[in-house]
Amino acid sequence: MRARVWFRIHRRMFLAGWRRGSRYRAAALGGLVANATFGFLKASILVAAVHAGGGSIGGYDTASIAAYTWLSQALLGSVNLSGRSDLATRMKDGSIAVDLLRPVDLQTVTTAQEVGRALFALLPRAVPLILLGMLVGGMRLPVDPVTLGLGVVSVVSGVTLSFLTVYLVAVAGFWMLETRGLQTAYMILSGFLAGLFVPVTLFPAWLLAVARATPFPSMLQTPIDVLSGRLSGIPAAQAVLVQLAWIAGTLAVGQLVTRAGRRRLEVQGG
Amino acid sequence: MAERTSFVRPYRAMLGARVRAQSSYRASFGLDLVTSLLIGLVELAEVWVLYRSVDGIGGLDLTTALLVFGLADTAFSIADLLVGHLDTLPQYLRAGTFDVFCLRPQPLLAQLITSDISLRRVSRVMVGLTVLTGALIANHVPLTPGSVLLVLLSLLSGTAISTGTFVAASGAQFFLVDAAEMTNSVVYGGRYASTQPGSVWNRPLIALFGFTVPMAFAGYLPTLTLLGLPAPWHLPTWAGWLAPVAALWTGGLAWLSWRTGTRHYQGGGG
User: Fold this and answer.
1) Which of these ranges, A84-93, A187-196, A252-261, B161-170, has the smallest mean pLDDT?
2) What angle, rounded to 10 degrees, do the helices at B26-52 and B122-138 form?
3) Is the predicted pLDDT of residue A232 greater than 70, yes or no?
4) Res B270: pLDDT
5) Which residue in A49, B39, B116, B124 has the fewest CB atoms around it within 10 Å?
6) Which of A49, A184, A191 sits opposite B50 (nearest CB)?
């Protein structure tokens, strides 16, 4: 396929996802209220923990732990930590057969669409939460354009990586009739290892090593650290490179699995 | 009395059928129990990771925090087992299947509560009870009639408070159909709040989770009373004994919300 055509298809799918995300206003408001409530609860205990630690805990001070809390709630609407996807439903009800008839790459097209929807969610969910965190939560964001630019790259990478990983969960359906168990396992592990509840840097060394061996910290912890300026300069660039490496890895595995799965696929009915 | 048996008998029959149905697919049921157990363990791990890095947060050390977790999490898990499936109400409302419940000559809420019982949630109750037992021993809580009564009263009241929030949230669903996450912030935010030391909260959080949705009475305040620690917010040391009052208050809120919601409901057409 020529590069221009490839680009046009993926841009269209991205925009389709973006528009779809814009349709569910009430749901976005509900999510915003939930994220804000958790933001206040988490900020209160984490800030108290920083005070108890004599002003610093796991490399976080009051301002950076506030930034951590509010950014994690802000990104939660966009990073997929639930393991659920439309693709999994389509695998189960057989409509995947129709998707596979189209002359496009299942993995990249699905990801473009999901990322489009997720990035739209940044507008109604992330922006208000970041403002809330800055107004009442005592969080600060860096002002220099290099850090912010790198932060934006890191957020987009984290969101993309989360969908590429959820894609792997969904296409396991080529072999398993029911991927619900796998999805639940993903949901249980991802939030914890991504640093949603407690920053992974507070983990004991062995648990930190376990977390770093998975792609999960690259989905949430890294974007937060880069965007909040906790990592800057070379370490920030390195963290983004790790994210890109995970993206390349999950892309490659997804391609292989999809190719093998197409041969396995058996759609019932007709 | 006649009315009571007419409710209890179908409930028993339904529960029996559920037990048989869910345990007949042994492998799947076993997997459900294991995932549910893992969720409980990860929640416990969150508390552990946070408290292990400092001496104490908001007046609680790790051992005390585990007592709060044990009380509050057991109570919430029992409520979740009994009425957690009320969460599916928005789906019934959207699909119009709620009308079926309206046609039957049984109280709506009783029908919904008995519509499903997820036995897999039993293993989360076990996690809570295990932590509670361990924490009671580790905190050297004396085995006096007073302390036993307080623990039982706190578990019962905590379960009633959590059950009340589930029902109150369901009542609000009749208005909020698409914004279910808004009430989730009260129900699941409440679960999270109930395992926290309330002393770290700011005024709005005290108003919300201390008294309006009185989650502090599920675990935190009874723990302070059990251990003879001073209570926050100008409350007396015996504040833990007020848990039943909090339960009655939540029950009233739940009743009001459910009544308003069902009277507002106008049917899904068809």
Assistant:
1) A84-93
2) 30
3) yes
4) 47
5) B116
6) A49
Looking up tokens 């914890």 gives A192
pLDDT for the residue numbered B4 = 54
Position B72, amino acid = A
Predicted pLDDT at A141: 79
Residue A269 pLDDT: 58
- In order of A97, A171, A173, A261, the CA distances from A267 in angstroms are 7, 14, 11, 12
Is-contact B58 B200, C-beta < 8 A?
Answer: yes
Do B119 and B26 meet the contact criterion of CB atoms below 8 Å apart?
Answer: no
Residue numbers in chain B where pLDDT is lower than 70: 1-8, 10-11, 14, 18, 22-28, 114-117, 267-270
- Quick one: pLDDT at residue A161? 94
**For tokens 């292989």, what's the residue?**
A256
DSSP 8-state code for residue A229? T
CA atoms B57, B62, B64, B70: torsion sign: positive
In terms of CA atoms, which chain B residue is nearest residue A32?
Answer: B182
Please tell me the distance from the alpha carbon of residue B56 to that of residue A21, in angstroms, as a whole number. 42
Question: Which pTM does this prediction carry?
Answer: 0.83
Non-local CB neighbours of A149 within 8 Å, separated by 6+ positions: none
Mean of the pLDDT values across residues A3-27?
81
What pLDDT is recorded for position B7? Answer: 60
pLDDT for B5 equals 55
Q: What integer is the mean pLDDT of A223-231?
A: 87
| Amino acid, res. B153 | L
B contact set with A (CB within 8 A): 31, 35, 38-39, 42, 45-46, 49-50, 52-58, 176-182, 184-186, 188-189, 192-193, 196-197, 200-202, 204-205, 209
Tokens found for residue B247: 């339960």
ipTM score over 0.90, yes or no: no
Cβ of B182 and A29 within 8 Å?
A: yes
CB under 8 Å to A213, separation ≥6 — which residues?
none
In this complex, the residue of B50, B177, B200 whose CB is nearest that of residue A44 is B200
